[in-house]
Specification:
- The protein is built from three helices and eight strands.
- The protein is of the alpha+beta class.
- The longest helix has 12 residues.
Length: about 160
């Protein structure tokens, strides 16, 4: 861009982040029943919640692992984003989610830093959260989810 110099370590001043922690890692699976059994064996305890998110055409299952969670995602419709992901890439890590204290401010901050939001307006997701996603092409091929607890709602 004309007239604009790239930031150098001495001039770069990042905008304040509202990120708190890694909330969960989302894993796309073909069979929730099979995968719940697999992750129960892996983590040594059963899932604590199963939930459907109709707007995303997905069933979810959550496991605790320390202060974070594993979210299994099974398509409930062959045209859902998870079904298309599995068709293209197979089962595996789908996204990493970061808990934020102010999702709208974080979307704005990250867009200003050059990330491409897939949705600028947060939507209701699983686990009583507002969610927004960043395009993988702007984050080294990783689908990034931002999530914020909905005030007054209980999460796992």
């Amino acid at each position: 861009m004309e007239g604009r110099r790239p930031a150098t370590p001495s001039t770069f001043r990042p905008l304040p982040s509202t990120m708190i922690r890694i909330d969960h890692i989302g894993i796309a699976v073909k069979s929730m029943a099979d995968s719940n059994g697999l992750f129960r064996k892996l983590l040594g305890e059963a899932h604590y919640k199963v939930e459907t998110v109709e707007s995303e055409k997905v069933a979810t299952s959550f496991f605790h692992i320390g202060e974070s969670k594993i979210e299994l995602l099974e398509a409930s419709d062959p045209e859902s984003p998870i079904a298309k992901f599995i068709e293209k890439r197979g089962e595996g890590i789908h996204h990493i989610a970061f808990e934020v204290s102010d999702i709208r401010a974080e979307i704005e901050r990250l867009e200003a830093e050059g990330f491409v939001p897939l949705n600028r307006e947060p939507k209701r997701g699983a686990d009583n959260k507002l969610v927004a996603f960043l395009h993988p092409k702007s984050a080294n091929g990783v689908l990034v989810e931002l999530c914020q607890s909905i005030p007054g709602a209980t999460t796992g």
